[in-house]
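Design request, tokens follow.
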């Protein structure tokens, strides 16, 4: 017998009838599949990225950024890809694809996007410190874990106000969604991951990241790798609260302590990571 919160066909049908799950563009899907290969063809990737002006601009901007200590700028897409490496390319492609689905221009979505990109970068930093955790998996999980929120806001204009109200009365956001809407953002996000062909492990992490007893779920429901992604993001979310606009304090003391224990992080480790976060992401 499955976990009571696994998605049934009825759950999926209800979400698809309630919220528009955007599709991933053909160019991005092809670039994503190529970037995920063990030995990707950089020339093919270069052709795909050059065909999308927005994606090309992001790749060149990242390749020429101080993060990659470029001795001189490049305007050649193949050179940019060689400089970035395929894991970083995968993250850039997916960031561009996700941004293209957002209806940017309103305060709610703009604030969501700003804090999501910051969180993804921070999660990547923390993932580097833990062997066995792929930087791109942590980045992509952080980028997509709350994607159901702006999708629900596009469908339900009252959604942002419901979130404001639940913060004022100290109600958890996930409970407010359950009370007011026919679906919740973890379910919407998990379906997007499925539709876009992203790794199932990331979809599992998204589906269960608001479960009250998530650190006690069996491996058959929530694999350890998915739980590690959740732990990384819960720690970074907590540390970034002061830098978020309209932050939702969804990571309570219990989950924060459990996340630190899951990763084996001590207070000293946490202080060191906070310092790295400040120097590399928050001081700009």
């Amino acid at each position: 017998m499955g976990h009571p919160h696994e998605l049934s066909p009825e759950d999926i049908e209800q979400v698809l009838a309630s919220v528009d799950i955007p599709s991933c563009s053909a160019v991005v899907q092809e670039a994503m599949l190529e970037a995920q290969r063990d030995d990707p063809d950089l020339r093919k990737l270069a052709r795909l990225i050059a065909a999308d002006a927005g994606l090309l601009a992001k790749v060149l901007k990242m390749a020429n950024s101080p993060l990659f200590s470029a001795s001189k700028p490049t305007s050649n897409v193949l050179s940019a890809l060689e400089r970035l490496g395929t894991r970083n390319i995968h993250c850039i492609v997916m960031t561009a694809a996700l941004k293209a689905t957002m209806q940017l221009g309103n305060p709610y979505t703009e604030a969501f996007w700003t804090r999501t990109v910051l969180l993804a970068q921070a999660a990547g930093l923390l993932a580097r410190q833990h062997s066995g955790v792929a930087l791109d998996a942590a980045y992509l999980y952080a980028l997509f874990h709350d994607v159901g929120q702006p999708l629900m806001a596009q469908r339900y204009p009252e959604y942002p106000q419901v979130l404001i109200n639940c913060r004022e009365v100290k109600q958890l956001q996930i409970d407010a969604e359950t009370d007011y809407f026919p679906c919740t953002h973890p379910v919407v996000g998990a379906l997007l991951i499925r539709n876009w062909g992203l790794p199932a492990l990331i979809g599992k992490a998204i589906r269960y990241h608001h479960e009250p007893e998530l650190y006690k779920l069996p491996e058959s429901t929530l694999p350890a790798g998915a739980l590690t992604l959740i732990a990384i993001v819960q720690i970074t979310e907590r540390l970034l609260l002061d830098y978020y606009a309209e932050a939702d304090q969804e990571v309570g003391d219990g989950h924060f302590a459990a996340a630190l224990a899951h990763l084996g992080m001590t207070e000293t480790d946490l202080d060191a990571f906070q310092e790295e976060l400040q120097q590399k992401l928050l001081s700009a």
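Comment from the thread starter after seeing the answer: thanks! Residues 218 and 224 are 9 Å apart (CA to CA).
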